[in-house]
Write a structure and sequence with these properties.
The structure is a homodimer. Chain A has helices at 2-7, 14-21, 25-32, 35-46, 50-58, 63-78, 88-91, 96-115, 122-144, 149-159. Chain A has two domains: 2-45, Arc Repressor Mutant, subunit A (Orthogonal Bundle); 48-159, Tetracycline Repressor, domain 2, CATH 1.10.357.10. Chain A is 71% helix and 0% strand. Chain A is mainly alpha-helical. The interface between A and B is medium-sized, with 33 and 33 residues. Chain A binds a DNA duplex through helix 3.
Chain lengths: 165, 165
DNA sequence: CGCCAACCGTAACGCACGCTAAAGAACGTG
DNA sequence: CACGTTCTTTAGCGTGCGTTACGGTTGGCG
């Protein structure tokens, strides 16, 4: 998981995984099948607590608080010490499906806010969702190329000021 | 250039470039040297008009207008019809240097705004620069995975509302 | 101690890659 | 028409990839 997280599916060779894991290739193949299956296992491990964290953040009483929490915890996750910078899901081209899922949850939360009167319309909710998606994607990419936590949190803080109270 | 733009350096094989260009490998090697030199030529072509466009956008009278123009023209560039979606520079891990240059120009423009009193401090300028960097990076990534122009412009519009007038 | 089964590392396969040498075609010049 | 130059094509090199067959080692059990 660490290797895929750092360098992506195509950037990691099976030999490198074997070296980092301290085992030989046949053992790895006996345990996981092939590189694809190994990657899916790594993804499953990575995304294990992702949905609940997401739901926890998004369950805040107001959409503004929900987005604030989401952006803040994402910035912290993308720069967690002892872990690779960025996000395995955001950095992997083939995981479009998983990203769409997250986007759908954000959009749903904002549409709920529109239905509850916190936002003026569903259209506004979708636009803000697109904006938040963009910021999250950017934060992950910036983290991977070395942006530190402070800078990401700065970006997150300004992003939450984007729509009027 | 199109091939590298669409799929990145590692995602493009010399054989594919040859097929798309309608020439054989030795001709390509005679003309460009090797894959790296070809890529640098493609980058030079891509970035040819990039700095002037950037300076044109950033030369707006106020920093807010400068950022508005930059975000808007970037959103349009990332979704230009007949061209690959996204940005060659933003999508290529090895072009960190080029991205840093763009970031430096944005930060310089916002620091100027701080010096001129449009922003309250250099610290605020740097924070807004980090935010704008993040949004730009995210817009390029979102464009590459299929986000349409409308969505990117929505994100750009909300990003410009992030700091008070 | 002897046996069997499970495990592990070595070595190799087929393939695609970046790259290049040498054969062959096209073309202007005498 | 013959020739020399220039470009293109064919074919192949070495390397690293994902993957797997095989022989040696280890460890538990009678």
């Amino acid at each position: 998981m660490r290797a895929f997280w750092e360098r992506g599916y195509d950037g990691v060779s099976v030999a490198q995984v074997c070296a980092e894991a301290g085992i030989a290739a046949p053992s790895l193949y006996a345990a996981f099948g092939d590189k694809n299956a190994l990657f899916e296992k790594a993804c499953a491990l990575y995304t294990e607590h992702l949905d609940e964290d997401l739901e926890r953040d998004l369950s805040a009483p107001t959409a503004r608080q929900a987005v604030e929490r989401l952006l803040r915890s994402s910035a912290e996750h993308f720069t967690a010490p002892g872990q690779p910078p960025g996000c395995l899901v955001m950095g992997e081209p083939r995981l479009t499906e998983r990203r769409d899922k997250t986007r759908g949850m954000i959009r749903a939360r904002l549409r709920r806010a529109a239905a509850e009167g916190e936002l003026t319309s569903v259209a506004e909710a979708d636009q803000i969702a697109a904006f938040i998606d963009t910021v999250l994607t950017g934060m992950a990419a910036r983290a991977r190329e070395g942006a530190d936590r402070t800078r990401l949190l700065d970006a997150a803080r300004y992003a939450t000021r984007a729509w009027p109270a």
